Amino acid sequence: MATETILSIDCANRWTCLGLWRNGPVGQMELNLGRRQAAQLPLAVEALMNLAEFQLSGVTAVALTVGPGYFTALRIGLAYGSALAFALGVPVVPLSSLEVLARSFPADGLVVPLIAASRSRAFSGAWLHGRQVLEEAERSREDLDAALSGFKEAKYLVAAADERLFSEGDSGGITVIPSASGTAAAGLGFERREEAVSPGGIRARYLREPGLGRSV
């Protein structure tokens, strides 16, 4: 059986997160590219491959976060990642950006990843020991607390650094990490490799219609 080499690209949050997996984690990059993301993303992938001493031609699948998250950043990541997969002749593994964030914060309890949706709302879900137990949705802090009230386990609300997350208040109890983990995404891509689709079949999951409400 051939060894799988998974390249992951996560542009759903503020940072651009890349990861490489081959028989385990090989390398990762988390970069704050800002408005340079579209221009710098191909160079960042090339830099990761060079640091890991791998050739792009050896990649067997590209794992892409498809949302929810920042509309423009998701479009950049999906456009580049699917084009790269098409050029390499490999499939794309679609990943939830919330699940990748949850995997980036291993904890013995209920992990609740958050991504800003507006000043007072966030995209959220919940995972317990790697199993999803709360569906992904856009929620206010009040709605989130109500959705979590039935769980008795210790709760860990986690978000990548973003000043707009519940910026009007209700941000207490949230653990902030610098970014999602590139190798967490690549490892999840390896686990989900049987769910791979053709590059042309990848679709974003915004959990809201683009252009409705406050854009993030």
Automatic annotation (TrEMBL):
SUPFAM superfamilies: Actin-like ATPase domain
Name the UniProt record assigns to this protein: Universal bacterial protein YeaZ
GO BP terms in the entry: tRNA threonylcarbamoyladenosine modification
Gene3D superfamilies: 3.30.420.40
Highest taxon of source: Bacteria
NCBIfam families for this protein: T6A_YeaZ
Domain Gcp-like span(s) in chain numbering: 36-126
